[in-house]
From TrEMBL, chain B:
<dbReference type="InterPro" id="IPR035906">
    <property type="entry name" value="MetI-like_sf"/>
</dbReference>
<keyword id="KW-1133">Transmembrane helix</keyword>
<dbReference type="InterPro" id="IPR000515">
    <property type="entry name" value="MetI-like"/>
</dbReference>
<feature type="transmembrane region" description="Helical">
    <location>
        <begin position="275"/>
        <end position="297"/>
    </location>
</feature>
<dbReference type="GO" id="GO:0005886">
    <property type="term" value="C:plasma membrane"/>
</dbReference>
<comment type="similarity">
    <text>Belongs to the binding-protein-dependent transport system permease family. CysTW subfamily.</text>
</comment>
<keyword id="KW-1003">Cell membrane</keyword>
<dbReference type="GO" id="GO:0035435">
    <property type="term" value="P:phosphate ion transmembrane transport"/>
</dbReference>
<feature type="transmembrane region" description="Helical">
    <location>
        <begin position="91"/>
        <end position="112"/>
    </location>
</feature>
<feature type="transmembrane region" description="Helical">
    <location>
        <begin position="133"/>
        <end position="150"/>
    </location>
</feature>
<keyword id="KW-0813">Transport</keyword>
<dbReference type="InterPro" id="IPR005672">
    <property type="entry name" value="Phosphate_PstA"/>
</dbReference>
<feature type="region of interest" description="Disordered">
    <location>
        <begin position="1"/>
        <end position="22"/>
    </location>
</feature>
<feature type="transmembrane region" description="Helical">
    <location>
        <begin position="227"/>
        <end position="245"/>
    </location>
</feature>
<protein>
    <recommendedName>
        <fullName>Phosphate transport system permease protein PstA</fullName>
    </recommendedName>
</protein>
<keyword id="KW-0472">Membrane</keyword>
<feature type="transmembrane region" description="Helical">
    <location>
        <begin position="30"/>
        <end position="56"/>
    </location>
</feature>
């Protein structure tokens, strides 16, 4: 077994008591509108088991230059839970996702106001090192993007560049590939290029690569949108597994996916203000079961029932 | 309000039953195809004719004398003359150009592509100047080298002066080629690297540069090929027309193949023309060898995304 240690960005909070919350309200109050498309297929979300926020967004706005892409977003990210962000194109869900590990820093002119805290620490404080932030908060992208290197080197890259103390890299690579449910498919060809894999395998390789650096949170930006339904199902199964150890935030266009995998769901939409400018807004955040069966906001209801978006 | 009636008519040629097998002649297609083939033929034909001409002309001189013997000013000794001093001079200069120009060019390109904020006026000015420098005639670089490097810096008419000036001359080519190669590396690779907690330099050195190697190598070698054929700046920089010794250091006098060829050709005797043709073939062989390396490197390390 490999033991991996690294210097923390700050002290992680001592094990907090996990609060079990009430289950969703789908059984008690069915909304009047038909939500058959969503509700019939599944039980609308997992039971949320934790309300310990590992991240908190409050009053977060993201600007590209002078343009305010997303306005005034406040929501928690609960520990070891899957939080989904849904909404129509251009509603700013990916923008918010990228602001959670400072990937927005890489876009010239992007600016974040409000506060994003991680264990109570402001991620945008002056003395916070974005490199350290990304080591704690990993990201999986929309299009599988393995490095043009061997499968082994793809997984080992993160531990190498972050200077993790690794006793046995082989073990670490195997563990990461096992955790990403890819080991059995690639164990005999670790030296072949990551680009030689199928799309679904590439995406699981990207997940393996991300968990190899042992982040606390994994952000996923529409991780299945380039995959076929079978590969998608595999990634979704993987997400369930990963939620035992990791906090996951996923952006998805697919409402069924959000309903299937997530504990909490945030619904975003695009609003046009008086100056005819579009801004992304968070409309509703709640437990997934509640959001899909008993939405508080009319716009959420319209969206999930397919009336718009 | 009544619904509008929509009637559609099929275009005649796609009416059901029209023969699919009846090939229509399309004169425009044919004309363009022929024009393009003619262009290719002209370009290729001229090149082949030139090559054939120098090969025939220099055939008698294509042997080891070319690189084992020194040039001579005496017609009576032409039988045993070669271009060794020019060949060695060219190899000296081109090696030095590689050493000077490639690191500077590649790192400049990395800075401009990966680090520079293109919204800053000074970075935009830099970019504009590099584009313009690539178009400056080489004789201008020669005069600049004469004034600043040979005279003001006091380096004189030496190998190092020639190498510095030729480096400056091809630097924009190297920078532009390297930037293109770096730009061709998908942004998603950089993002993946950053998302794993890699620093900027780690991302550049471990992901971007290895992926850009084929493009950088190709551009660099083509730039060196251009430097190797330059005669104009060297004329100003005091390349010697006849020397019977090889350069032995950075501060040595020198000559180079293009200069040697030029001086042979200005002579009236036919023997000199023959020797010049032989030297041309030698120079071409060097350039072709370098370009082959470029193609080999590109194919060997090419990445598919």
């Amino acid at each position: 077994m490999s033991t991996v240690t690294y210097e923390p960005l700050h002290r992680r909070p001592q094990h907090q008591s996990e609060v079990t919350t009430v289950n969703h309200s789908s059984t008690t109050s069915r909304p009047a509108v038909s939500i058959s498309a969503i509700a019939d297929t599944q039980t609308a979300g997992h039971q949320a088991t934790s309300t310990v926020p590992v991240m908190e967004l409050s009053g977060v706005s993201v600007y590209y230059g002078a343009y305010e892409a997303v306005r005034d977003t406040s929501m928690p990210i609960q520990r070891k839970q899957i939080t989904a962000m849904i909404g129509p194109s251009g509603c700013g869900k990916s923008t918010i996702l990228r602001s959670l590990n400072r990937m927005n820093d890489l876009i010239p002119g992007a600016r974040v106001t409000g506060s994003v805290t991680y264990h109570g620490q402001d991620l945008y404080a002056k003395d916070v090192d974005p490199i350290e932030v990304r080591r704690r908060i990993g990201m999986v992208f929309q299009k599988p993007n393995p490095f043009p290197k061997s499968i082994y080197d793809n997984v080992a890259y993160g531990p190498r560049v972050t200077g993790m103390k690794v006793d046995n890299m082989d073990d670490l690579v195997e563990k990461a590939l096992r955790d990403a449910a890819l080991w059995d498919e690639v164990k005999d060809k670790l030296k072949t290029s990551g680009l030689a894999l199928s799309g679904g395998q590439q995406q699981r390789l990207c997940i393996a690569r991300t968990i190899a650096v042992k982040p606390e949170i994994i952000l996923m930006d529409e991780p299945c949108s380039a995959l076929d339904p079978i590969a998608t199902a595999k990634i979704e199964d993987l997400m369930f597994e990963l939620a035992n150890d990791y906090t996951i935030v996923i952006v998805t266009h697919n409402m069924q996916q959000a309903a299937r995998v997530s504990h909490y769901t945030a619904f975003f939409t695009a609003e046009v203000d008086q100056e005819q400018e579009r801004h992304g807004r968070l409309v509703e955040f709640s437990q997934t079961g509640k959001l899909f069966t008993n939405p508080a906001d009319k716009r959420t209801e319209d969206y999930i029932t397919g009336r718009f978006g | 309000m009544s619904a509008p009636t929509i009637t559609t008519t099929r275009p005649e040629h796609s009416a059901p039953g029209s023969a699919l097998t009846q090939r229509r002649s399309r004169p425009g297609e044919l004309a363009f195809r022929l024009a393009m083939q003619a262009c290719l033929l002209i370009a290729f034909g001229v090149l082949t004719a030139l090559l054939a001409w120098v090969l025939v002309k220099g055939w008698n001189r294509l042997d080891s004398r070319l690189w084992t013997e020194m040039p001579t000013g005496l017609v009576s000794r032409l039988d045993t003359a070669g271009v060794q001093s020019a060949l060695v001079g060219t190899l000296w200069i081109i090696s030095l150009v590689a050493v000077i120009c490639l690191p500077i060019g590649i790192f400049s390109a990395i800075y401009l592509e990966e680090y520079a904020d293109s919204n800053r006026w000074y970075n935009r000015l830099l970019e504009l100047n590099i584009q313009n420098l690539a178009g400056v005639p080489s004789i201008i670089f020669g005069i600049l080298g004469l004034g600043i490097i040979a005279r003001t810096l006091g380096l004189g008419f030496t190998v190092i002066t020639a190498a510095i000036v030729l480096s400056l001359l091809v630097l924009p080519v190297v920078i532009i080629a390297t930037r293109e190669a770096i730009r061709a590396v998908p942004q998603s690779i950089r993002q993946a690297s950053y998302a794993l907690g890699a620093t900027k330099w780690q991302t550049v050195s471990r992901q971007v540069l290895p992926s850009a190697v084929p493009g950088i190598a190709t551009g660099s070698i083509l730039a060196l090929s251009r430097a190797i054929g330059e005669a104009a700046p060297l004329i100003v920089l005091g390349a010697v027309t006849f020397i019977t010794f090889n350069p032995d250091g950075l501060d040595s006098r020198y000559t180079a193949l293009p200069i040697q060829i030029y001086t042979f050709i200005t002579r009236s005797q036919a023997e000199y023309a023959e020797l010049a043709a032989g030297a041309i073939v030698l120079l071409l062989a060097i350039v072709l060898a370098m370009n082959s390396i470029a193609i080999f490197v590109r194919n060997r390390f090419e990445k598919r995304w």
